[in-house]
Write a structure and sequence with these properties.
This protein is globular. By secondary structure, the chain is mainly alpha-helical. It contains eleven helices and five strands; from the N terminus they run H-E-E-E-H-E-H-H-H-H-H-E-H-H-H-H. It has a three-stranded mixed sheet, covered by helices on one side. Helix content is 52%, strand content 7%. The longest helix has 22 residues.
Length: 268
């Protein structure tokens, strides 16, 4: 846990909450984690024994910045909590386990996003990144959309604007600017433009070229697809297919521990 927290500080900024602890709750706890400041509640199902679910801890630790330090002013802007946190989580995972692990998480996240949008319907307004929730119970709008559609947008912006060397100083400025405040998407967007106007004005033309309404208020999948490296996923699927094919005649002696020797924890 200490390593994850230190990595999060390297990615984002110094941790300002003093103490950080995890409290494992009884099996009746209905969530993977709940990001209370200083003390994250987690489900006992995270104690898998192989550290395969440490990305959940990375996610909850990342909430110490996005969600707790800077938080959405209401449920319509929930992506500012969860989209940013998912984006931060994957950056932390990349530092700890390599870029392949991040790419696999992105591929899985995009599949989860597609599943949510198929469930709601691609024209359902609740699949917008910033949905209108007047008269709507926020529980009815809860899905992976703010998580993965939000992270998809931030990944897109990072690559559009020049990669991590350009984007990471901006994201640190965003946290520093709004820490201790509740904000909306309009505040986030205003700071994005203000930051690049002051620090790299050539990027403003790129920002102006973005179809913001399609990204923020239109339902359905994002208007632009990201390219994710699918090789980590394909390696898993290829091995799974070998196991399925071997089942017909129980030819399992062909499999060796070395088959997964170079797999990340998430691949395993």
């Amino acid at each position: 846990m200490e390593t994850i927290l230190q990595t999060a500080e390297d990615v984002i900024s110094p941790y300002l909450w003093g103490r950080y602890d995890l409290l494992v709750l009884p099996p009746s706890f209905p969530y993977g984690g709940m990001e209370n400041p200083c003390l994250t509640f987690v489900t006992p199902t995270l104690l898998a024994g192989d550290r395969s679910l440490t990305d959940v801890i990375a996610h909850e630790i990342a909430h110490s910045w996005s969600g707790n330090l800077v938080t959405a002013k209401n449920w319509e802007h929930f992506w500012l909590n969860e989209g940013w946190t998912t984006f931060f989580e994957r950056k932390i995972v990349s530092r700890l386990s390599g870029e392949d692990a991040r790419q696999l998480s992105c591929v899985i996240g995009e599949a989860d996003l597609l599943e949510s949008i198929d469930f709601y319907g691609k024209d359902n307004p609740l699949t917008a990144l910033v949905p209108k929730l007047d008269g709507v119970d926020p529980d009815d709008a809860y899905s992976t959309v703010p998580y993965d559609k939000g992270a998809h947008l931030l990944y897109y912006l990072e690559h559009l604007l020049g990669g991590p060397a350009v984007f990471e100083p901006y994201m640190r400025s965003y946290i520093q600017t709004y820490q201790g405040r509740s904000i909306g998407t309009e505040d986030w967007k205003s700071h994005l433009f203000s930051y690049f106007t002051s620090n790299d004005s050539a990027k403003v033309e790129l920002l102006n070229s973005i179809e913001w309404d399609k990204w923020l208020t239109a339902p359905g999948m994002p208007p632009v697809s990201n390219y994710y490296d699918e090789r980590p996923q394909k390696a898993c699927l290829a091995l799974a297919d070998r196991w399925l094919n071997a089942a017909s005649d129980c030819a399992y002696d062909q499999f060796l521990p070395t088959d997964i020797e170079e797999f990340s924890t998430m691949q395993r």
